Amino acid sequence: MLKKHCKYETQIENGVLTVTLRGEIDHHSAVSVRTEIDSLIYELRPQKTVLDLSEIDFMDSSGLGLIMGRYALMQRIDGELTLKNPNERIVKIFELAGLGRIVKIEEDAEEIGAEDAEENTEKESKK
What we know:
By secondary structure, the chain is of the alpha/beta class. 48% of the residues lie in helices and 29% in strands. The chain has helices spanning 27-44, 61-76, 88-96, 109-126, and strands at residues 7-13, 16-25, 48-59, 80-84, 104-106. The chain has a five-stranded mixed beta sheet with strand order 1-2-3-4-5, with helices on one face. Helix 1 (27-44) runs parallel beside helix 2 (61-76). The N and C termini lie far apart (42 Å). The model is unreliable at 111-115 (pLDDT under 50).
C-alpha cells in the first residue's frame, strides 16, 4: 500500500497565514505538520490562519486534532482559524464531531460556481 504523506505550502499576506495541505492527514503526518505550523504561528503571529484542505484525500481523527489544536492556538493569540474548501467527507466528519459550530468553513467562489454548475447539469440530465 502506497502512503501519501501530507505535504504543505505556506503563504503569509496581510496578516493571513495560509497553509495549503495536500495528501493525507493521519497520525504519522499530523505530528510534523502540527509542529511546523505552530512554529510559524508563534513566529509570525498572524491575525488569521487559513487551512486550505482542498487537496486533502484522507483525514482521520488526527486531522481533527490538528485542526482543533491550531484553533486553540489561534484563540490564545487572539486570532482566528478558518478551513477552506474541505471535501464533503471532511465536512461530514467535522459536523459529526460537533465542530462545525466552532471553526468557520469557507469555499472559493470558483469552487461554489463549479459545484452549482455540476448540480445544474445533473438536474438537467435527470429531466
